[in-house]
Hints:
two-stranded parallel ribbon; Rossmann fold; homodimer; hydrolase (chains A, B); 8 helices; globular; alpha/beta; carboxylic ester hydrolase activity (chains A, B); serine esterase (chains A, B)
Amino acid sequence: xxxxxxxxxxxxxxxxxxxxxxxxxxxxxxxxxxxxxxxxxxxxxxxxxxxxxxxxxxxxxxxxxxxxxxxxxxxxxxxxxxxxxxxxxxxxxxxxxxxxxxxxxxxxxxxxxxxxxxxxxxxxxxxxxxxxxxxxxxxxxxxxxxxxxxxxxxxxxxxxxxxxxxxxxxxxxxxxxxxxxxxxxxxxxxxxxxxxxxxxxxxxxxxxxxxxxxxxxxxxxxxxxxxxxxxxxxxxxxxxxx
Amino acid sequence: xxxxxxxxxxxxxxxxxxxxxxxxxxxxxxxxxxxxxxxxxxxxxxxxxxxxxxxxxxxxxxxxxxxxxxxxxxxxxxxxxxxxxxxxxxxxxxxxxxxxxxxxxxxxxxxxxxxxxxxxxxxxxxxxxxxxxxxxxxxxxxxxxxxxxxxxxxxxxxxxxxxxxxxxxxxxxxxxxxxxxxxxxxxxxxxxxxxxxxxxxxxxxxxxxxxxxxxxxxxxxxxxxxxxxxxxxxxxxxxxxx
Lengths: 242, 242
């Protein structure tokens, strides 16, 4: 199979293009797809800043591109959007599709160390300066986190902390750009799974500027994301000094 | 089954709510769903103008609500959006699901006269002044139209003309509001099926103001619709003098 990405679809939107690519990933050991939104370009060689959108549980590379409407602001700001898929596909690992919050389609951005899940190597290696995500990496102190981290990384909680945003915050230095988080207070996963207040506390302890906005009545859906995505695109554009 | 619509989901978006309802339709003889977007309301008894979105082939009541982003402009303009489903569902009429462009999921807004398809009674009866659609009613002089009209209405072309926008244009009087049409010139159905130029000609012959905009490079997808939907919402708001 070909590891060079080949274009499998292209649709114009807001003057730019949503393009979907397919390639064989030697890292994951399977064929993968991803979407890129290219804003209108002043010249064929123009270089754009890039934002990565990391989707969550049950998503593919398609949800954000089809439902968020982020391309509107990305078009006016001149930002490329990249939406990768959320897990390896088609490996037929036993139990990979037994539950919706683990295995296939579960957006845990980590490199598994347990033999059974060794193909789950989905951290991003990138030279881009920004990696926005529509939700915090799943925290270790919630049911989702404990299930996933135990299976992917084994029983040692010290290993889990490498992928826990709240734990990692104690190790960061010199973060000057504000971290913007929107959280619907009608999100059914808010109280027990997402724990954004713990992350906010960790940011404050580390003197990292954070703006956590509780949005009254909004749930976990793309209707919520579409409502606030423009704020996030503009936020990143300002931070990138576009 | 209950013919009074019952709410089956509600999600906040742009300050308003996407609500999906289910009801038993005595007219169609089956259970149906539809979506309504309610913009933010200044008072519980506030009355809003309504726009109906009539989806096309292969769609349900969900596509427009999930993918168009029309709620943004509907929220600021104070317009209710209603997205009905495109056909009866679950009747198990022989052959209803044999092809993607006829039967289940095919958005032909007509009252069938042929016995086999007698449940396909999906014209809208409404007191609203505007019925925008993302595509012209399928014309009779194209392959889609000839297949559908023959099956639903029988062989007489005179019966077909009742549902053909281009034919109907010769009968209208006193249309003062401009009809706005966007058409992607990269739409694979444009040359053979949609025939917007024929409709434009009919409007001009009838002195009906029409603005047909050919949009270079755009296809038939919701990426195209999302790009231009704001123009259409604002267009209707102006015509309604909101």
